[in-house]
# Entry
Amino acid sequence: MNFKLLLKLIPLILIGLLALSLRLYKIDSPVLDWHSFRQADTASVTREYVKNGVDLLHPKYHDLSNIQSGQDNPEGYRMVEFPIINGLLATIIRTFPNLDLVTLSRFSSVLASLITLAAIYYLGYTWSGKTVGVIAAIVFATLPFAIYYSRAILPEPYLLATSTTAIACFQYWLITKRWWSYVLTFLLLGLSFLLKPFAVFLAPVFLGLLIAERNNLKLLQWLAIAGLSLSIVPLFLWRDWIQNFPTGIPVSDWLYNGNGIRLRPAWFRWLIWERVTKLFLGYTSIVFLPLSIIYPKNKELLVYSCWWGGIVAFMIVFATGNVQHDYYQNLMLPVLALSLGRGMTILARALSKKLLPLLSWVIVIILYLVGVSISWMQVRGFYNINHWEYQRVGKVADELLPADALVIAPAMGDTMFLYQTNRRGWPLGFDIDQKISAGATHYVTTSKDDEANELKAKYTIIKESDEYVIIDLTKKKS
# Structure
């Protein structure tokens, strides 16, 4: 490798090592932390592939109930994002069976986040200078919210990696006109669409970069339009394919404005105050955002505005989804990091006109660190596990039950308990006879409620303790 290039990359390498070390915190934590419902569902697709072989066109998971799609799902289809990541992870585990699925899945998300970090560094460096690139990368590396979701078992880390890298490749193509970067741009963008259709809201960034390009504009426009058109084709094909499996498609209409919150005071409060100001930035770091729009170059103003415009449009269109799921705001993390990097740089330079440059940066760093500390006070709770008993009981069930058992594991509809049993089934009780008719073979619970007591009186108990009871629904008591 060219020594000068290596020297230039030293800051990025050091920031990457910092980001990696922070993201290894509780990397082996079971899927019982914040948003464990969604994480368990994602991880179970990988697990089903490990057990039964990889079939990308027919992804299945552990939940056979009608909770998500409104229809009974006896085959356990899971028709959401294209399961290429699940397939890759499952292939690795099938090749190296001793690897732990949860730890590998979390670590894979971490690696994806490091790719995002490198793309942020490049974009900040290219658009606003080396200082902004370095600080933006540091922000993404150290924001507590970004750290937590960079090791979560969700599509979001891969969405950020593919979409942000696609933007970086597109910028590189506009500068160098190298065709490999053009092809890679739209391959990555196509993968982004398959991982999460939300990536379409990043289209304004490409438009802004294209407009900012002054040379060969007409030719570049046609090439960009052609690339965008081709990159979205796989999404349409996938969405058309999954219509053949309606039982595996979660109901999603409510994500738009199911509770009528769009642009109402509560919408502004939750997204601008509770999430961006409080949760992400810990109050003090919010001062850098308005500063980031001061004295921009024409290209900076255009590109940053287009990026933020896409994010705001996303939050308006999917109003209820954004309010109810904080992980939806992962989509804004790259532009948030870039904007903070620029705002911090501008404030430090402004203060240096009256103070020593070192002192100016000390003030900026203190403001940021205070924000990180306050943010961490809230995000640290995301790592908490409130139901360790689910893991303990799940292990017992996994040891005792047949591999093909279909389990009822009531947890108010949350699949995190069902996931711990390493079996497919239902995350909710009620209508037990119907579930038995659908194939349910065992009932596992940590709640000694009326339903559990009735089943204990009627069916054979496999094992019981003060903490749990496991019941065989195939054997009635005489």
Summary: The mean pLDDT is 94.
